[in-house]
């Protein structure tokens, strides 16, 4: 079962925090699970994003905007994200 669902709002972890946990490869990419967090994604660190799609067979989540599609894994999200819990609670109340 997936931890997150489409519509959840998650906060992206800070670059330095992920570097400490996962390290950086020769190309400057942080390898989280089966997905790389590249330098171009650094602008999203600390930001809250809404999950737009989920890959069916893995821990892969997508953020889509008009210019880019970025791929994230749950390891790239702040742990115990309060905004996700609030969003789910609001949906239960509806």
Would you give an account of this structure?
The protein has 94 residues and is an alpha+beta fold. It is 21% helix and 23% strand. The strands form three sheets. A three-stranded antiparallel beta sheet has the order 5-6-7, with no helix packed on it. Strands 1-4 form a two-stranded antiparallel ribbon. The two termini are 23 Å apart.
Biggest sheet, spatial arrangement of strands: 5-6-7
User: Cα-atom Rg, whole angstroms?
Assistant: 13 Å
How much β-strand is present in the residues?
15-25%
Q: Work out the helicity level.
A: 10-25%
Number of strands: 7
| C-alpha end-to-end distance | 23 Å
Q: How does the helix and strand content classify structurally?
A: alpha+beta
What's the helix count? 2
Mean pLDDT: 80
Order of helices and strands: EHEEEEEEH
The major pleated sheet works out as:
3 strands, antiparallel
Stretches where pLDDT falls below 50 for ≥5 residues? Answer: none
What sort of overall outline do the alpha carbons produce when their principal axes are compared? globular
What's this entry about, in short?
The chain has helices at 15-22, 82-93, and strands spanning 9-11, 30-32, 35-37, 48-50, 53-54, 61-64, 69-72. By secondary structure, it is an alpha+beta fold. The two termini are 23 Å apart.
